[in-house]
From TrEMBL:
Keywords, ordered alphabetically: Methyltransferase, Transferase
GO MF, one example: methyltransferase activity
InterPro entries membership: Ppm1/Ppm2/Tcmp, SAM-dependent_MTases_sf, TcmP-like
Pfam annotation, one family: LCM
PANTHER family attached to this UniProt entry: S-ADENOSYL-L-METHIONINE-DEPENDENT METHYLTRANSFERASE YKTD-RELATED, S-ADENOSYL-L-METHIONINE-DEPENDENT METHYLTRANSFERASES SUPERFAMILY PROTEIN
Source species, domain of life: Bacteria
Name this protein carries in UniProt: O-Methyltransferase involved in polyketide biosynthesis
GO biological process: one example: methylation
Amino acid sequence: MKLTGVQATLLPTLYCRAVDASADKPILGDRVALATLRRIEADPDFEVDFSKVGMRPGDESAVAIRARHIDGQVADFLAAHPRATVLHIGCGLDSRAHRVDHGAEVRWIDVDYPEIVALRRRLVPEPPGDYTALGTSVTAPGWLAEVPTDRPVLVVAEGLTMYLDAGDGRLLFRGLAEYFPSGTLVFDALSTTGVKLSRRAKAIKVARAQVLWGIDSPRELESIHPSLRCAAVLNAFDLEGFVVSTTLRGRLATRVLGRIPALRQMLSIYRLEW
């Protein structure tokens, strides 16, 4: 796989979900991720050494806990809106459509670059139900016109916003708020301090990705469009089990970081409504 930059960041997160799935007591238990990783390893067309994607022992816990929390938000939304559209932007090789139980009345649309969507079709089985994989850059003009607006919409963006230019990110959020009559947007974001520190992370360096957009407060998000309202924000350190790691070093590090205000705010999960 000739993936570089932001596209290559799907490899470490896939690896972490797969490692978690193979654990005796998995947090997320994403068996589709594990099967996808094994499919890549067995295919001679792919030359991927997952031991060199830059993840450390214990990183899989944080990745799995974040994904589990966002899955929960999706499930809660669908419980309240059983006939809805889920728009998963920057989906990579994520198998959220398999993990979250959704009925026949849910329209699920995964969105990523055309080459990533082609890769998904080769590696990830298509989930049952009303499912579409849309190949486009989320910052390309006009792509939202392909998404119907006849149902309540939940937009999910995990591991995406930090790789967007701030101007492009604000334009994307504004476009969502103007295109859908009403909606909910769930996403994770780094603070400006988190952006600076993450540029030193091995996984980012290996992928040669650029980390650009830092968000420090709900007010920044609400200033993007008059109808946007921050309904919830949760610091990653407040996620249940976030300080649990498979290594002693990881547990100590998260506890220390959690006591330093600037570092504690590095990663947050937001829910915007309009």
